[in-house]
Amino acid sequence: MLACPLCQATLAQLDNGVACPAGHRFDRARQGYLNLLPVQHKNSRDPGDNQAMVEARRDFLDAGHYAPVARRLAQLAAERQPQAWLDIGCGEGYYTAQIAQALPAADGYALDISREAVKRACRRAPEVTWMVASMARVPMADASCSFIASVFSPLDWQEARRLLAPGGGLMRVGPTSGHLMELREVLYDEVRPYADDKHLALVPAGMTHAHGEILEFRLSLVEAKARADLLAMTPHGWRASAEKRAQVIEQPEPFVVTVSMRYDYFVRQD
Predict the structure, then answer these.
(1) Residues 6 or more apart in contact with residue 42 via CB below 8 angstroms
(2) I need a labelling partner for 14 at 20 to 30 A (CA). Which of 136, 195, 196, 254 fits?
(3) In this structure, is residue 196 part of a structural domain?
C-alpha cells in the first residue's frame, strides 16, 4: 500500500519503520507516525498548520461543536464499507478517528503536511497508519484506496483519482456559502459571496458526482474560549482586525452561528 516518496517503490515494514528495495528508509516517530515528507518536497521549514492553530482546532472539535459534521461523515463512510480508506489532509485527526470507529474491519490511512497536527492525531486512533506527507505526492500505490475523505482540505484531484480503485469514491466535505455567516457579518464590513460548488468543475474525467447533500445547524458558543478557538482555526482569525475579533470573543451574550456543510461523493468509473 505505501510507496516510497523518493522512488515510488513499495515500502515494506522494517524494524521500527519502513524501507524500499532501493534502501530508502523512514523510521517511525516516537508518537507513532511515519514522516514520508522528504525535505525537497517541503515549501517551508515547517509546512502546514502551526501548533497554535492545531491546538485551537483540537480544543474546539473536542468540545463537540462540530460533532454532527463528523457523525454524518462516519455514517456515509460506513454505508460504503471500503476495504482501505484514506483521510487526506487529516489535521489533528478528529474526523479520522470517527471514520476509523465506523470502519473497524478496514485498513485506515491518514496524512497531513503539518507535523504538529499529525503528532497529535496519532493519539486518537493508533490502529490508523498516520503519515506526514504531501497531498500532492501521496506515498501510496495507484488504485490502493476504495474510499478517500477530504474534510476542509485542499485537494489535488488528479492525485485523488490516481489513489482510487475503480468503483472507489472520494467524499469531499466543505463549507457552503452560508457557513459561519453570522461570524463573517461581524468581522467584515462587506461579506463577499462565493460559489460553494466551484469544485464540481475540477472533477477529472473518469470520476462522476454520485451523491450530494447539505448538513446545517445552529451553534451557540457560550464560552469566550470557544469563540477564540473558532477564530484561530479559520482564515477569519488572521484576516479580520483585532478590534473585530475582540468584539466576537468578548461579547457578553452567547454567540450563535450557522454551521453549513456540503458533502459531495465522487466515484471513479474506470
Answers:
(1) none
(2) 136
(3) yes
